[in-house]
Amino acid sequence: MAGKNSADNRTRTSVSIFIIAGLCCFFYLLGAWQRSGFGKGDSIALAVTKTAGENCDILPNLNFETRHAGEAGGTDESEEVEELKPCDPQYTDYTPCQDQKRAMTFPRENMNYRERHCPPQEEKLHCLIPAPKGYVTPFPWPKSRDYVPYANAPYKSLTVEKAIQNWVQYEGNVFRFPGGGTQFPQGADKYIDQLASVVPIENGTVRTALDTGCGVASWGAYLWKRNVIAMSFAPRDSHEAQVQFALERGVPAVIGVLGTIKMPYPSKAFDMAHCSRCLIPWGAADGILMMEVDRVLRPGGYWVLSGPPINWKTNYKAWQRPKEDLEEEQRKIEEAAKLLCWEKISEKGETAIWQKRKDADSCRSAQENSAATVCKSSDPDNVWYNKMESCITPNNGNGEDESLKPFPERLYAVPPRIANGLVSGVSVEKYQEDNKKWKKHVSAYKKINKLLDTGRYRNIMDMNAGLGGFAAALHSPKFWVMNVMPTIAEKNTLGVIYERGLIGIYHDWCEAFSTYPRTYDLIHASGLFSLYKDKCEFEDILLEMDRILRPEGAVILRDNVDVLIKVKKIIGGMRWNFKLMDHEDGPLVPEKILVAVKQYWTLGDTNSTSSQ
Fold first, then answer.
1. How far apart are CA 88 and CA 128, in angstroms?
2. Ranges in the chain, pLDDT < 70
């Protein structure tokens, strides 16, 4: 009997060795094929698959071929894969929900025409957005902060319009960004130094910032080295490509505007909000736009306003505006700030700084004859496509902000929303378990793709961010993560993500994201396709991922096997190299991982094909 068991063990050992050796040979042959020259993107695909091959002895369970079949009604693998064709050249910089032609059909009042207006299903493109001729991988950070390849965003208008303001300069085959701005022509660093004399930027108290009307986002770019992460936004308007430039530089930014719709951020999200000559009419409509900033500003947070109408008595001639208009504009701003219980703590030159009082609720109730109207909505985070209201969001006096830790301690401290039981179904223990889970997942990702820690991927997106565990486990000064909270998610946890010192945004993945094509280096999505299984077409979501992913960018999908088999079939018709892999805990786990690399191709290229 013992002899028979010994023989069986030897047989199983031999089979295991044979399987591992076969997989490693497969990776070698795949690598040889990739070296044959099918497109510039294969250099990155080679690095990813080579890494997986090298790890045959480290993570033997991470096999590219799944051992689970799809559930009944799944994709028939024998079906022919539909090849998705390139879009016409006119769509190279297409932004579906901020399309210029569609925008002009909407009213201009209150910037409505610059808000999101997405195409109906029958008008959606079903093709792959091409990169422009000559497109190259952006420079690594921090060089990318100062230089952007001209071919990636070939628009020179800002170099002329903003020449004296030092925004951007065209030099040969690159754009150079000196770090200037309309209000800081001497550079963002000196401007931030001035702010830091009033605002505690250096000690981790201020971590998350909002830059409204950001231009090319130099303010956010130079805050990064001070461990402050800014969410910058600007409309797609006559200043062509300003947000595109920001993202090419490696700075977090989205296309957006303060118009009639609430901003896609949770309440009490930001430690600081900023406007540097952003041309937003803050005093109009009884200060409704300031009320919206107040909603997303934490108690104790700061609002910085630089430019008109601040210090109008000195500057009205230089601004070429009537002093009566400027005086009235500042009066309205001061009145709105008082109503919101913001205390002005500094006014120097053309810059004023207010601080939102931590006891704003009691402050307002103590005001005699206060005209403040308190919002009646029970959920101040319910914002998607909801109109702004002329009312003040209450703090609710739950004390959650007083316990917020400075950054980086904030990253893994228990977020106040969870500590105070404000997130249904998420206890402190579940939060800590989630952190452990994502540390394990990210550790596995780094063994699959060793480029994760090199700085190769600067702009990263998590399409279904949950509690922010992926971004926290991955945290590094080399990159940033845009944490997206699907509007249909069971739990709204974006406020928790901000309390961790991370940034994110609400979004419905049945629609296009508010960004330009080719703006993310790596996209991660866990459970996203299961979430949207009966909500919209998988092909539409994958085409949007392809639109916003750079050539040679990487994708990591984690989901149930039956869902990923359907996704895999669609990807087979896209210009991606991909592999379906087992869960890091082994082949018996129904959750699988799909890793992919978008091939390099540009306008006119026809030699790229997908590989399985």
1. 9
2. 1-79, 158-166, 180, 182, 237-240, 366-370, 397-402, 606-612
Task: Tokens for 229, please give them.
Answer: 């992460």
- C-alpha distance across the termini of the chain, in Å: 45
CA-CA distance, 394 to 385, in Å (whole number)? 21
Question: What are 323-328's contacts with CB under 8 Å, separation 24+?
Answer: 328/283
Confirm if 582 and 592 have CB atoms less than 8 A apart: yes
Structure token pair of residue 503? 């940034």
> Strands, E, within 256-350: which ranges?
270-276, 297-306, 342-348
Contact 557, 594 (CB under 8 A): yes
Please answer whether residues 534 and 444 qualify as being in contact, where contact means their C-beta atoms are separated by less than 8 angstroms. Answer: no
Q: What's 523-570 look like in SS3?
A: EEEECHHHHCCCCCCHHHHHHHHHHHEEEEEEEEEEEEHHHHHHHHHH
pLDDT of residue 578: 96
- DSSP characters for 399-424? -GGGGPPPTTGGGTSPPHHHHTT-ST
Angle at 598 (CA atoms; ends 593, 600), nearest 5 degrees:
160
Q: What is the pLDDT of residue 28?
A: 45
Angle at 359 between CA 357 and CA 363, to 5 degrees: 90
Query: How far, in Å, CA of 584 to CA of 55, rounded?
Result: 12
Tens digit of each residue's pLDDT (9 = 90 or more) over 173-204: 999 998 767 678 778 999 999 999 999 999 99
**d(C-alpha 18, C-alpha 182), whole Å:** 66
Sheet containing 174-176: which strands, arranged edge to edge?
A: 147-149, 174-176, 169-171
Residue 200 is encoded by which pair of tokens? Answer: 């505690």
Query: Residue 51 has what pLDDT?
Result: 47
**Residue 396 has what pLDDT?**
72
Instruction: Give the E-state strand segments of 152-291 in sequence order.
Output: 169-171, 174-176, 208-212, 229-234, 253-255, 270-276
Nearest-angstrom CA–CA distance, 250 and 365: 44
Q: What is the pLDDT of residue 608?
A: 45
Answer whether 375's CB lies under 8 Å from 392's CB. yes
β 147-149/174-176 pair status: antiparallel
Q: How far apart are CA 474 and CA 472, in angstroms?
A: 5
Q: Distance of CA 455 to CAs 153, 459, 591, Å?
A: 22, 10, 28
- Is 269:208 a contact under the CB 8 Å cutoff? yes
The overall pTM is greater than 0.70: yes
Rounded-to-integer distance, Cα 73 and Cα 6, Å? 43
Q: For residue range 317-340, list pLDDT tens digits in order.
A: 888 889 899 999 999 999 999 999
Q: Rounded distance, CA 259 to CA 279, Å?
A: 12
Pick the closest to residue 270 from 207, 314, 351 (CA basis). Answer: 207
Beta bridge partners of 520: 549
Give the separation between CA 523 and CA 343, rounded to whole angstroms.
41
List the beta bridge partners of residue 303: 273, 354
DSSP string, 214-232: -TT-HHHHHHGGGT-EEEE
Check residue 425 and give left, alpha or beta (phi > 0: left; psi -120 to 50: alpha).
Answer: left
